[in-house]
Amino acid sequence: MRTITVAVAGASGYAGGEVLRLLLSHPHVEIGALTAASSAGTTLGGHHPHLVPLADRVLLPTNNETLSGHDVVFLGLPHGQSGAVAAQLGQEALVIDLGADFRLQSAEDWTEFYGGEHAGTWPYGLPELIVGEGRQRDALKGVERIAVPGCNVTAITLGIQPAVAAGLVETTDLVAVLANGYSGAGKAPKANLIAAEALGAASPYGVGGTHRHVPEIMQNLRLAGADDVTISFTPTLVPMARGILATTTARIKDGVDLAAVRSAYAAAYDDEPFIHLLPEGQWPTTAATLGANSAHLQLAIDDRASRLVVVSAIDNLVKGTAGGAIQSMNLALGLEETTGLDTIGLAP
Ligand SMILES: NC(=O)C1=CN([C@@H]2O[C@H](COP(=O)(O)OP(=O)(O)OC[C@H]3O[C@@H](n4cnc5c(N)ncnc54)[C@H](OP(=O)(O)O)[C@@H]3O)[C@@H](O)[C@H]2O)C=CC1
Ligand SMILES: CC(=O)N[C@@H](CCC(=O)OP(=O)(O)O)C(=O)O
């Protein structure tokens, strides 16, 4: 197998750093240019001291000159910045955007939730997404562009899509709440992340159907088979560095019991290397997924409320971003999908 050269734009950020941490264990990858914006000229070690083998690498400015000549370019840039950078890159490189710019199919949704001009739509990098009778992985082979999903979207989609695809639940009054670690917000200082106020507190954000991941979740569940989707989604920031614990509930259809639901989830996920439906009675925790490209799921039926309850846990930076991105890269390049990725978490 030839060596794959990889450049990472936004290497000083959390998502770019996590791509590099994982790629350092990828057997076929050689790490090329690392770029940033205001951090250009500094060394990577000053931003990511844990990436010891790359500590002395100097960050370059982000432009066509520094990013060209690689087989793969990862873009870990703030929303709205990837379009302009990607437009300069030729088709010879596989470009993988970790941001939101190319995820949505609807330009109206983009303008409503992000504002401004929609950059376009790229093949969506969630290999396990159920699309009709198939999986999204089939659409990723040989592609030159990939849009990596939002991390909250990944946790919720993986949690509820088997029930939607199997027609076991109503899809017009889905409810999802989740707890989210701070790293999901990126490294730039933000008002709601001042340590003295946020440490020790759980605080909601994006309340009232305003979070920009709502249209992306709906897009996925339509692909999974829902004719009509409505979801009320509320994230909460909790004082942990990484991790997402999502609880998604849906009104269960008459006559559907837990055995039928478990069997639909087993059929959907038994062959998936990174998705684990836990044994009955065992509940997902973020800790068990930290550092791993895993999603852990568990199910219950709330009989009194007639609702299916699905709890899903991921590491936002791994299965939610960098790990999912590398899984999709492997598929696009014709490598074994699991290359360089593992399922072993970092608990406690
Ligand atoms: N954090 C997470 O859990 C997840 C993040 N993502 C997505 O990944 C992307 C990056 O997020 P994250 O790493 O958290 O953000 P960070 O704020 O941690 O990092 C942003 C990076 O982008 C660079 N940058 C900023 N502006 C520009 C620009 N105009 N041109 C080039 N580089 C620029 C920064 O460089 P400098 O140091 O010079 O400022 C930095 O390297 C976002 O789109 C985010 O939504 C997706 C899923 C999950
Ligand atoms: C804590 C926190 O703010 N989390 C972010 C995670 C979003 C994310 O990383 O996904 P994108 O690529 O779409 O930005 C949020 O919920 O908006």
Automatic annotation (TrEMBL):
Protein's cellular compartments: Cytoplasm
Record-linked Gene3D superfamilies: Dihydrodipicolinate Reductase, domain 2, NAD(P)-binding Rossmann-like Domain
Major site of localization recorded for this protein: cytoplasm
E.C. code: 1.2.1.38
Molecular function via GO: N-acetyl-gamma-glutamyl-phosphate reductase activity; NAD binding; NADP+ binding
Pathway(s) served: Amino-acid biosynthesis; L-arginine biosynthesis; N(2)-acetyl-L-ornithine from L-glutamate: step 3/4
GO terms classed as biological process: L-arginine biosynthetic process
Residues forming the catalytic site: 151
Record has Transferase as a keyword: no
Enzyme type, top EC level: oxidoreductase
PANTHER family membership: N-ACETYL-GAMMA-GLUTAMYL-PHOSPHATE REDUCTASE, CHLOROPLASTIC-RELATED, N-ACETYL-GAMMA-GLUTAMYL-PHOSPHATE REDUCTASE, CHLOROPLASTIC-RELATED-RELATED
Similarity remark: Belongs to the NAGSA dehydrogenase family. Type 1 subfamily.
Protein name, UniProt field: N-acetyl-gamma-glutamyl-phosphate reductase
Organism: Aeromicrobium chenweiae
